[in-house]
Amino acid sequence: MHMHKVLGVTAILLAWGAPLSHADSADRSDSANEPELQWRAQAQGGLLLTSGNSSSTTLAGALKASLVTGDNRVDLHLAGAFARSSVFMGTDRNGDMLFSQDEVERITSIASQSWLASTRYARALTRRNLLVATTSLASDKPAGTNLVASGQLGYGRVLAATNEHRITLEAGYDFSYEQLRADDRNRKIHSLRGFLGYEGRLSEDTSLELSGEALVNVNSVQSSSGPIDPIDDTRFKSEVSLTTELFERLSFRFGFSARYDNRPALRPELALPYSADFKPEAERLDSRTEATLILTLL
């Protein structure tokens, strides 16, 4: 008798910060000109486990938080995903076109193993002009990267801002350090950065967010797969999310993100190493689609 158990748990929390309390305001009565402190945070997490004939583990989570005071804003983003599957595979070692007991085994593989930690600081110089600085650490082992550390500095311009819509354009400089799994030459990449973002409210209950970021290298980079010329290592990232309120405290969110790298890292080795003349690259395009429920607590 076979046993097949499936356990799935998904939890999403949303918390919004409030202005200072009356007590805090009283304590600061002698500093009435100090900027008001506002914060907000959003967290989500998911777990899926299966066992028996099909065995898999999938974990995903994210945390976003922001702090605003006067003309300054700080954003924090943490995210991670892990997926592992185990299936039965057969190898006809003796070539008799049949599988015997010692030719069938359960193979475990990692489908996803990535994490991200980033911070962003924006300083409003005027009503429509911004100074932007970001830092990030990331890892995506199936894509061939153990660690990617980057820092960005640039200028932002609010192209349009109304009660329903906001469009922001950013341009600047990016430095990335890539520690690769299958490449003995880590990459140091200097790039020009461009970003375009849109935030809009389609109706009283529905909001839409769109963004696109492009990085174009300006230096030559050495790698085990060959030299990379300037402008040859183009990277692009785009995100789309649609959120609609279903009930007073319950919302639905659909999100899609895509990442493109014109010169990706080498693909990690399998159970056996690749031959000396075969150096496959990881896929250039990675995408992620998610549909989640958001519960507003505060």
Features:
mainly beta; 13 strands; 13-stranded mixed β-barrel; 298 residues; 1 helix; 64% strand; Outer membrane phospholipase (ompla), Chain C
Strand content bin:
over 45%
Low-confidence stretches: 1-31
Task: Please give the number of β-strands.
Answer: 13
Major beta-sheet overview:
13 strands, mixed, barrel
Number of helices: 1
Distance between the termini: 48 Å
Q: Can you tell me the number of structural domains?
A: 1
Order of helices and strands: EHEEEEEEEEEEEE
Rounded average pLDDT: 82
Q: Specify the helix fraction band.
A: under 10%
CATH arch. level architecture? Beta Barrel
CATH class: Mainly Beta
> What would you report as the Rg, rounded to the nearest angstrom?
24 Å
CATH names the topology as: Outer membrane phospholipase (ompla), Chain C
Question: Structural class, from helix and strand content?
Answer: mainly beta
Silhouette:
globular
Strand sequence of the main sheet, in spatial order?
Answer: 1-2-3-4-5-6-7-8-9-10-11-12-13
Structure notes:
It is a single chain. The chain is mainly beta and 298 residues long. The protein has a single domain, classed as Beta Barrel (Outer membrane phospholipase (ompla), Chain C). The protein is built from one helix and 13 strands. A 13-stranded mixed beta barrel has the order 1-2-3-4-5-6-7-8-9-10-11-12-13. The N and C termini lie far apart (48 Å).
Secondary structure layout plus pairing:
Layout: E1 5-16, H1 22-27, E2 37-51, E3 55-69, E4 72-90, E5 104-124, E6 129-140, E7 145-161, E8 165-180, E9 187-201, E10 206-217, E11 234-245, E12 250-261, E13 285-296
Parallel strand pairs: 1-13
Antiparallel strand pairs: 1-2, 2-3, 3-4, 4-5, 5-6, 6-7, 7-8, 8-9, 9-10, 10-11, 11-12, 12-13
